[in-house]
Design brief:
two-stranded antiparallel ribbon, 2 strands, mainly alpha, Cytochrome Bc1 Complex, Chain C
């Protein structure tokens, strides 16, 4: 064991983060997604930087620059496909990471959880801004629909929309500021990830059993470094398979048509990772109510650290809680499916029922597990 004095302060911090960090011996594969998300973030920042070198934020040029770069810029097609599909894999990792936190009670680490939810909000904002940049039909109309939601705000709604647009419609000023924000936000996210890790290492990781593991830990390297590397291979493999063999599988064909304010797509919908929230938005007939429900779909995660506490962290020993949790998972998938359907019956009613069930989980999980605590 080397003495701490042999290392500089920066080296000591890095060494404590990835080498000597005490880690519970029984954490499972579900704990791999933190490191996988770090890889995704690094990949998105790097590929985004490369793409930004050949992008022009102008409504008359953006679409054609993106299309022309496929053939004229060396390997631009690869970086574009990696960036687009990397966003999808980023959200897969995020949703699984959050699901693990909900199941195993990681939200009880209040600082870690709260910063994580802020990271989720910023990543969602960055993904939306990036989706607008190619200036295809779905990009243009997605920007128009989502930014118009701010008009539902009482008194200041109209002024906020004009400020966001930089004018009286989605136009060149909108695209320019969206590009600037999309470029900056990932670096803010990276800073918050560092803060997220600081509080995580200060408080220690949870474990599947939900009990204290202070006397049963191992160093992070090489036990979990190797495990994370194996997980990275299983995660990166499908991503590269998608990039090479079917790069536009998860995209919308409408986005290969230049944005046209005079032609509205038959069915406007966001990328798949926003469909659950989009279904909740459409489920409320009132515009302001829909905006509130849309925001609450993510902001409700802030409630979890203050929800009723149980005697054992997590749901491993709560059968009723497990039933509720896996019901939430099913509801999430069904909401994603409903959000991809047209705004008509029976999909509206289905979305309303599913939205009610989605929010019911957060209201019921605390009391249900508390009741089981008393029964046992």
């Amino acid at each position: 064991m080397y003495k701490a004095s042999r290392f500089s302060p920066l080296t000591s911090i890095i060494r404590h983060t990835v080498v000597t960090l005490p880690t519970p011996i029984n954490i499972s594969t579900w704990w791999n997604f933190g490191s996988l998300l770090g890889i995704c973030l690094a990949s998105q920042i790097f590929s985004g930087l490369v793409l930004s070198l050949h992008f022009t934020a102008h409504t008359d040029l953006s679409f054609y620059v993106v299309i022309q770069s496929f053939g004229d810029v060396y390997y631009n097609w690869w970086f574009r496909a990696l960036h687009a599909n990397g966003a999808s894999f980023f959200f897969i990792g995020l949703y699984l990471h959050i699901a693990r936190g909900l199941y195993y009670g990681s939200y009880l680490f209040k600082e870690v959880w709260s910063i994580g939810v802020v990271i989720l909000l910023l990543v969602m904002a960055s993904a939306f801004l990036g989706y607008v940049l190619p200036w295809g039909q779905m990009s243009f109309w997605g920007a128009t629909v989502i930014t118009s939601l701010f008009s539902a705000l009482p008194v200041i709604g109209g002024d906020v929309v004009v400020w966001l647009w930089g004018g009286f419609s989605v136009d060149n000023a909108t695209l320019t500021r969206f590009f600037g924000l999309h470029f900056v936000l990932p670096f803010i996210v990276a800073g918050l990830v560092g803060l997220h890790l600081f509080f995580l290492h200060d408080q220690g990781s949870s474990n599947p059993l939900g009990v204290s593991s202070d006397f049963n830990k191992v160093v992070f390297h090489h036990y979990y470094v190797l495990k994370d590397l194996v997980g990275a291979c299983f995660f990166i493999g499908p991503l590269l398979g998608l990039v090479y063999f079917n790069p536009w599988l998860l995209g919308d064909p409408e986005n290969f048509i230049e944005g046209n304010p005079l032609v509205t797509p038959h069915h406007i919908q966001p990328e798949w990772y926003f469909l659950f929230a989009y279904a909740i938005l459409r489920a409320v007939p009132n515009k302001l109510g829909g905006v509130v429900a849309l925001a609450a779909a993510v902001l409700v995660l802030f409630y979890m650290p203050v929800s009723p506490k149980t005697s054992v962290k997590g749901l491993s020993f709560y059968p009723w809680g497990k039933m509720l949790f896996f019901s939430l998972v099913g509801v999430f998938f069904l909401l994603t499916w409903a959000g991809s359907k047209p705004v008509e019956e029976p999909y509206l009613v289905i979305s309303q029922v599913l939205s009610f069930l989605y929010f019911s989980y957060f209201a019921l999980i605390g009391p249900i597990t508390r009741i089981q605590d008393k029964l046992l």
